[in-house]
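Field reference: sequence -> structure
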Amino acid sequence: MACIKRCEKPNIISFQYVLSDMAKYYDVAFVKRFAEKFVVKAFEILPKSTMIIFNDTNVTQQYALRNPEEVKGREILDYLARKFWINYNIAVLKYYFPYNSDPSLCFGGAHSKCEIDMESVPEELKNYFEMWNQYRSAQLVLVKNADVSLV
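Structure field:
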């Protein structure tokens, strides 16, 4: 209750594979507009240094050619990066996890580690959920640089 009374606001918002999941049910253009409007509205309300982190699917070009009907999350992230790149009030940072040496995975800077440390995950969870042992996403980080209107 104290947080609400002091009007504290979040400074990190994370989308974990949300956009590619939305694109399974909605037109990709709609998903792009949704994400773009979300960023603009969030940065309009939230304080300087707020970050919006998008992690989404990043597949090799060979996989994409074999599965043309599947929406690739990185395509949506690339759209958002281009859209906000020209706005000096937003820092645009792109990363990817190089889970194999295929250059078609490149999306900004490479993270140095792809393996997930599974030692602290209880066995019940490992047996119940289908868990990956590597990070394989593309990542777009948008950071609000100033408290000014973005529209």
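Note: The radius of gyration is 17 Å.
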